[in-house]
Structures are given as structure tokens and as C-alpha cells.
Amino acid sequence: MLAKNLDLRNVNSILDVGCGCGSLSYSLIRYHNFQGKYEGFDIIKDFIDWLQQHYTTKYPNFHFTFAPLSNNNYVRGGESAGAYTFPYPNGMFDAVFLGSVFTHMLPADLEHYLSEIVRVMKSHGTSFISYFFESGRRKDFIRVGQYSTRNPKCPEEAIAYDENFILRLYENVGLRATRPVIYGAQDWIIAEKV
């Protein structure tokens, strides 16, 4: 998604929020020979430990950080995502990527993350963020307040949002979609910091 929609030759720094087991970093190294600064963070410590051992030692421009956060679907007992400050300075990144993060995040946490994304992006930086949008394709989701979920007992298992609700949040935090939503198994918004 990122490489298809962004000229990586003009990108000096990328933040991968919820980097998981390293899919984006692998692609950037293996297929794109990315030489800029890459930062990734995730709430699963085993992923971060593995990535630090296998990537950072070989590729010193790739850094991975453990974020001790709680998410009822993955990890319990950590800090709230809604209070987490990304460990990076203002205006550091040309691009911010979130694949399958907001599909597991409640509205208040999502809104906080959007404000943090804008804070760490450079002026006119680009964000690539996936969602589940409520539509006929999500027939097994149940409406709960501001979102829909497959599992009301553990909403973070899979969360879908109204597309207009998300676009209003973008406007509130200073993001502007630069092209139409890309619909698919996950729905993607590519946006610019205004």
C-alpha cells in the first residue's frame, strides 16, 4: 500500500504504528532498499525483541520500540492507548503507516492516536491508515454506540466505523484525504497533514 502510493525516493522517514512482526519493514528492506529512517512500535514485546535482534543489528536505520499498552484483544494490564504519547519529536516523519491498528481500537483511543500522528508528521506529510468501514460487507458486525463490532464482549477483536465519522475526525485533527477511500478487505485512507 505504502510503496504503491508514495514515491519512496522522496521519503526520509517513516513511522510504522503497530508494526507487528515486521511486514512493512521487510518490504521496505527487501523490495525497496529503503535508506531513510524507519521507526516502528508495537504492543507485543516478543515481536519487538525479534525485530531488534534480526533487523536493527543488520539495518541500523531501522528501529523498533516496545509500547507497553493495553488492548483487550492482545495484551492486558498496560497503559491506555488514549494516554500514550508517541516517543518521537514533533514533525519527524514524512509518512505514517497504520495497517490493522484502528480495526482494533476504541473511538477515544483512535482519536488520541490521530492527534499523535499529526503531531509527529512533517508539514504535508502523508498518512496511510486502514479501517473497517460500516457497510453491507460487514453483515456480522453489531452496532455499539459510535462503532460496530463482531464481538460486543471484546469489541477490540474487530471494530468498524462510519466513514463520515472518521473523515470528521480527520478534519478536526488537521488531516485531509488526498484521494478517494480505497475499499477492500480493509478500507484505506491516504491523507496529508494540512
Folded structure, characterized:
The protein is an alpha/beta fold and 194 residues long. The chain folds into two domains: 56 residues; 118 residues, Rossmann fold (3-Layer(aba) Sandwich), CATH 3.40.50. The protein is built from five helices and ten strands. Strands 1, 2, 3, 4, 5, 6, 7, 8, 9 and 10 form a ten-stranded mixed beta sheet that branches. The mean pLDDT is 94.
Features:
194 residues; alpha/beta; Rossmann fold; 2 domains; 10-stranded mixed beta sheet; globular
The SSE string, one letter per element, is HEHEHEEHEEEEHEE
Oligomer: single chain
Unreliable parts:
none
- Helix content range of the residues, please? 25-40%
Question: Biggest sheet, open or closed, and with what strands and sense?
Answer: 10 strands, mixed
The total beta strand count reads 10
Number of helices: 5
Q: Might you state the CATH topology name of the largest domain? A: Rossmann fold
CATH architecture label of the largest domain: 3-Layer(aba) Sandwich
State the shape: globular
- Binned strand content: 25-35%
Mean pLDDT: 94
Distance between the termini: 21 Å
CATH superfamily placement of the largest domain: Vaccinia Virus protein VP39
Global structural class: alpha/beta
Radius of gyration: 16 Å
At the first level of CATH, what is the class of the largest domain? Alpha Beta
Number of domains: 2
